[in-house]
Amino acid sequence: MASSLEHDMEWVVGRLKQIQTVYPQILQDVQQEGKNAKLSFYLEDISMGALRFLRTIGADAWQDERQLRYVHLALSSVLPRDTGEQMLQKFNRFLGKTASGVWVLDDGLSTGQEEGGD
């Protein structure tokens, strides 16, 4: 029988896979590796942006220097579920803005070109 923590970690991976199906052009794959998730991105610069964003929202995430397309995420850092759901919603919004061409620095700032102005 799976422990509550294992069940919750499976929930995080399931949610990440749901997000991946919404943005398959950005997030290539999500795999569980023990107590971590491995997120595979198509482009290194997007994976580095995702890493910075995940860290900004409080997730324990890192990259392998030799494989920059992959972001590793400690599943326990996206728990408990209520906090994790909020974090995953923010990550979902990050990917949505990235897909639309707007680079997100944090939940309130972006570097996309704004239309208009002087």
How does the SSE layout of this entry go?
Layout: H1 4-22, E1 27-33, E2 36-41, H2 44-56, E3 61-64, E4 67-74, H3 81-99
Antiparallel strand pairs: 1-2, 2-4, 3-4
Task: Give a short summary of the structure.
This protein is α+β, with helices and mostly antiparallel strands. It has helices spanning 4-22, 44-56, 81-99, and strands at 27-33, 36-41, 61-64, 67-74.
How would you characterize the overall build of this protein?
With 118 residues, the protein is an alpha+beta fold. Strands 1-2-4-3 form a four-stranded antiparallel β-sheet, with helices on one face. A hairpin with a 2-residue loop joins strand 3 and strand 4. The radius of gyration is 15 Å and the shape is globular. The C terminus is likely disordered.
Entry keywords:
about 120 residues, 4 strands, about 20% strand, alpha+beta, disordered C terminus, Aspartate Aminotransferase, domain 1, globular
- How many helix segments? 3
What is the name of the CATH superfamily?
A: Aspartate Aminotransferase, domain 1
Q: Write down the overall geometry.
A: globular
Second rung of CATH, namely the architecture: Alpha-Beta Complex
Mean of residue pLDDT values: 88
